[in-house]
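S.,

Sequence below, as promised.
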Amino acid sequence: MKDFSYITNSSPAFIENLYNDFVKNPDSVDADFRKFFEGFDFAVTQGVKSNGAAVNGTALTTSDGVDWKKELGAYRLILGYRNKGHLLADTNPIRHRRDRGANLELSFFGFTEEDMDKQFFAGNLIGLGTTSLRNILTHLQKCYTGHVGIEFKYISDQKKVDWLTNEMERQFVNPVSLDKKKRILEKINQAVMFEKFLHTKYVGQKRFSLEGGESTIPALDAIINQSAEEGVKEVVIGMAHRGRLNVLANIMGKTYEQIFSEFEGTGAVDQTMGSGDVKYHMGFGSEIRTTGDKTVHLKLMPNPSHLEAVDPVVEGFARSSANIVHDEVYENVLPILIHGDASVAGQGIVYEVVQMSKLEGYYTGGTLHFVINNQIGFTTDFDDARSSDYCTSLAAMVQSPVFHVNGDDPEAVVKCAEIASRYRSEFHTDVFIDMVCYRKHGHNEGDDPKFTQPTMYAMIDKHPNPREVYIKFLLENGEADAQDLAKEMEKKFWSDLQDRLDEVKQKPLPYTYQQPDIWWRNMRRATEEDFDMSPATGISPETFDRIFKAMMQWPEGFKPLRKVEKIIQDKVRLFDTEQKLDWASGELLAYGSILADGKDVRMSGQDVCRGTFSHRHAVLRDENTDEEYNRLSRLGEGAGKYRIFNSLLSEYAVLGFEYGFSLANPNALVLWEAQFGDFVNGAQIMIDQFIAAGEQKWQRMNGLVMLLPHGYEGQGPEHSSARMERFLQMCAELNMVIANITTSSNYFHAMRRQLAWPFRKPLIIFSPKANLRHAGTYSHKDEFLKGGFREVIDDTFVDDAAEVKKVLFCSGKVYYDLAERQQKDNRKDVAIVRVEQLYPLPVKQLEALYGKYNKATWFWVQEEPLNMGAASFLQMNLKTINYGVISRQPSASTATGYAKIHKQEQEEIIDTAFTI
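The prediction came back faster than expected:
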């Protein structure tokens, strides 16, 4: 992909010597330069090849008349168009492109007009044979500077480069078949017709129309049809609001009647499960037959207005679906992300998602990114929206090619869609299509765009829509039958539009439920009564022994690190002597028991294999070979799979991925662990928009578990608080479960309860840090064999409830600080009650204990400042118990950064708690 100007300026003898070196040993010359000589050799072998002999009247050597400099100039011209043609391509339908400094003038390559009809061997490199410079230039302009420009100079894999150049130089000189023209016109008719209808019938209503970008519909149609031919069985789509209704109608097959009823507010929306959402945020699923008679399942993911937030959800859903339905053949499920130009450039989540694309734990076989580039973001022109040349410039980061295409040329758009689909199938990597178009109206149909872009919108007002442009093209350039087709479709267009105006009903597409769909349909909604007491989740002694033995051993010949080996031996010794399991062992036992039930467990996050606090050691490393060993990988026949992955340094995208993964499969336990709970701040959009509200907005349950290390140990303001108050503030309508657990057995039951419930809820656990190794968190074997999760744990130290003068109720780490003082001072008059589940709040259990300790004064004790933690939530929701609050003083920061001050504050809390 070099331009070889340094060689062009060299002496002919030097170039000839290079060629002679190539003849003796092709590998001795530069790989790119070798391609030139191969093309030259191919031309030579068409004649009589012998040393110094003439070929077609032209001699091989410089002394016999081969003008190496001109030949190399022709080769450089070819490379120039391949590398920089996109900078000159006519991709903008409404305004001139800004000059990006591409120099493809003939003089730059050493040519004049006199050279145009000279013959060049270099024509063999582009499939033309030995031909004139004029023919070479015409061919290159058709392929690289017409309505399509391709960016791929940064790709280092020569196989990919060769594949792309072959496609570009073959597809964009071949005409489109009549059948394909008909299909394109049919789909663009549907797109335009739908927008016209809505604009006619629902004047002024927000619909975020696709007008100006209608070529999106034939593009998506082509992607799905071509991908099905490549073996894709399922397509998962993520997109924002622009054009969403059109995609629902003309790609997903949602009936006009369903869409219209939502516009008119007459749809039978199920409000018993939540508040619902606006029409252009809802998800949809369908099953279609492609033009090649293949069946494809389509899923459009529900999403909020937060642009691009749905991207990682799509990826996680696709990965999960491939695991369950497609036997881990990830290429069978195609994620399509439809971006806006302003958002793909401006939202960092896109970078995070693209960065995940080749990682083992997040690979989905390649994503097709389709940008509806309407050159404006709300009211912001692209000059103010990005610093990069293109909105898709981040594609270079993972060496993904970008097809820049003029949205007014649906044939070119469809060709790009088909090439991109084949590329994804061939190389299983991401690929981008940047369709440059325009937005007919303002950000929504009630907004006047001329306030901010008067000149641009003066041009748009006069500009025909893509359907009109295409029909004009067919009439002027098509064959006779193509012209007849255009007239026939024109007539049909108005007929169909009238049918829609008359509300002729469509039949909904048939749908065959996939296995995960069936599992979800067997779920029911949760009720208040479901949270009065947790289900029994104990396991049999035989199952316990089998899992414990499996996770405490490793294969013959495997040598774990000596320090890790000692840690595991200490766990075995603890069990042998006391029949107890520490936190990490109880955690792995929980996962192992779920696997033994035939269900899967997936976990990801930064350093989760080892554990941030070096406690989990779920995956061991051989100290000699660096080989990995998964401690839950040998549970026997019928066991599920334990998939655990260290993630990239991302919270937003990784949490979104795991949410999407859990959304696809109710029978897998899916966990995300923050390195410290504080870092969950970086994923706040996923929590606000999906985890806390997804069931209410979109009627989609989810059982994702979030582990957020939380606890005040003097580690400063960024390593103390997972912001419990924020999660509790979002709790309502049984939307999620919030827990702060103190024993390994209760953690075990919490995990098993996630899949034992006949419904699914996100579970947020404020997990321990220092207390991972606290002896008080260890649990006896019997506690894993019986019972279930305990929402409230009563005091076991006091003997007589009647003697208790003070009850301290609390959650999490502070319990052990309180218990230590209680036992040290032998305070039988103070009872300590642990609230292990903060939401849904176990009010009945607390009221029962309030009755038991009816002579005592109650206090809620927390480590967090008064304006944080659970204090305000309890004051708002726990009205039947009279209690005070003991905490740190209100604070703007979560914790002090000074160890001495931390210790002093902690002692004050404990001293106050035990003062009568």
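The CA atoms of residues 331 and 365 lie 4 Å apart.

Coffee later?
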